[in-house]
Design goal:
Length: about 210
């Protein structure tokens, strides 16, 4: 199977689901969006459920690639300011190149309310966010207990719908018209400076330092 063509079809399926919703996700529509001969998508993904699975897997791959890019080559941001910048970048992506992926993912969640198998597929994807943000809090030297991780993750998840709809009054009321200030404020609320369990602010200690 041609992997490049498979990825092209998966990207097209993400775009179709984001643009046309669940009812618009058909093999014919994916073929048209990918500019391939009619029947190609069905050869790769024989059923509509297979198309939905392909979209879910592609959304996860794209999200992880973006997070890795923003984190850089190291384990993650080493301090509060770096983490705030990374989180702002993730949210900013939702209003730009990542918008189709995010809209498609929300469509998948709606489909999952009627398809238990899809809910089971999406469950580890959603749960992985909590683990990922916990890791980022730890590398930044901030408290990373379950309550901190949940508060941060749910605050960011809650911001997504408002960013996608882009209603200016709501964005201003939520503080989402300035994403850098928003993420700094969220971290200040979730992990106030001086909170027990935090590493002292400043550069992370180097290995071997006393």
């Amino acid at each position: 199977m041609n992997q490049d063509r498979r990825d092209r079809l998966r990207d097209a399926a993400v775009a179709v689901l984001a643009d046309a919703g669940g009812r618009g996700l058909t093999h014919r529509a994916v073929d048209a969006a990918a500019a391939v001969p009619l029947g190609t998508a069905k050869n790769y993904f024989p059923t509509r459920d297979a198309l939905l699975r392909a979209v879910a897997e592609r959304c996860l791959e794209q999200y992880r690639a973006l997070a890795a890019l923003l984190a850089g080559s190291g384990p993650g941001p080493a301090d509060r300011a770096g983490l705030a910048a990374l989180l702002a970048g993730l949210l900013r992506d939702v209003t730009g190149p990542g918008r189709p992926r995010m809209v498609a993912y929300l469509e998948l969640q709606a489909e999952a309310t009627r398809r238990p198998w899809l809910a089971a597929l999406l469950d580890p994807i959603g749960a992985s966010d909590f683990a990922a943000y916990g890791h980022l809090l730890r590398t930044a030297g901030l408290p990373s207990g379950p309550e901190h991780v949940r508060a941060l993750t749910l605050a960011l998840h809650g911001a997504l719908l408002h960013l996608l709809t882009g209603a200016p009054g709501t964005l201003a009321a939520a503080g989402l018209d300035d994403l850098d200030a928003f993420t700094r404020a969220v971290l200040a609320s979730v992990c106030p400076e001086g909170l027990p369990g935090a590493r002292p602010e400043g550069p992370a200690p180097k290995e071997g330092d006393a």
